[in-house]
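Dock LLP; give full complex structure.
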Amino acid sequence: MSVTAESPSLVETVAGLSVEQLAQEFGTPLYVYDAAVIAERIAELAAFDVVRFAQKACSNLAVLDLVRRHGGMVDAVSAGEIHRALRAGYQPGFHEPPQIVYTADIFDRQALDMVAELEIPVNCGSPDMIDQYGARCPGRGITLRVNPGFGHGHSQKTNTGGQQSKHGIWHEQLGECVERAAKSNVSIAGLHMHIGSGTDLEHLSQVCGAMEKAALSIGDSIHSISAGGGLSTPYRAGDKRVDVAAYYELWNATRKKLADAFGHPVSLEIEPGRYLSAESGALIAEIRAVKRMGDNLFYVVDAGFNNLARPILYGAYHPMAICPAGGPRGSVGEKHDVIIGGPLCESGDIFTQEEGGFVQARPLPPAEVGDYLIIGCAGAYGAVMGSNYNSKPLAAEVLVEDGQAHLVRERQSLDDLVRGERIPGE
Ligand code: LLP
């Protein structure tokens, strides 16, 4: 296990290995993923015909390879993600089920070339994609991503349904899309709905009815339905785990109604990102300064929002723990309120903040320079949203499988930071 919502605030290991040894061997900031957690989450969803990993959550090649070895298929939202899927051993082509699906609201030119030439099935999130695809790939089947008219997410920024969202095809335009597809000589073989990320069972369940209605309006060309992603995971102590069995039952009932209506089997997909990888990942940082600002105590660490952007973007809460360098010291259970900051030259570089940028103190054990801070539940939308802001190299990533730590991404070098840049005339 990694550092999760219910972990103690003093730890010595992540994924069963010593934090101090990992930090010494690979340096900090360091992402560590526990392969066993990802494998366990895939297994929990085994009732679905297809578990398709939304790789945007954690697209390291080693993680994709792990998901593939455990039977997961993959979603790609860009030419780059198709490239990653191929490099991780996924096969292109119209298999049943397809191993790679391209889901997006546009084709950029590179992505359209790739899906056409490599035969990657597409899930169209805009009516224009239907014509563009038909012109390049007449005769093929597509799926449509439908915006059912409502959405929900852990933040307004992760709500992907309703009129204010750019995602998907508006549910009232499906009839028009059937005509567009016929004109473009492509068939509509499936439907997909994803209403947002980090949503709850109540909102997710409403999608089943919307899917049934949409699929019946299209008719028996539909052979697959996808529930999208969105399953939340616990970040705070007391957060409830989603009842995946109950969720499956709702979708299975929808699938059965459609299969009965169409007179042929309908395959049921789920497309989780966060659910598979969030709890597997921890970000290890070293505390480099302990300082007071009036009444406030700060630990300033060597990881910032260049490594984990969720707190500054959404006010997201991540569980945190301290690992004292050189083993336990002080009295166990002692805590004080502390604000955790990163190294960036920007005052928003705070890991303990609420949406709106309001800084919050967190009860954590006393710590000294040289101790480690472990930020838990960082395996989804962590490393993938990293940036080079302030010319900080992207962090190293380690995958722990069967007790072995594998370096799966080298820390960027300073030369990596300037690769591709040119001074005119030189
Ligand atoms: N399918 C589609 C079409 C999506 O757009 C997404 C997420 C997923 C599946 C996976 O959603 P999940 O199961 O992970 O909730 N950066 C934000 C999350 C953005 C999600 C974008 N789309 C965060 O850190 O919370």
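Observed: The two ends are 51 Å apart (CA to CA).
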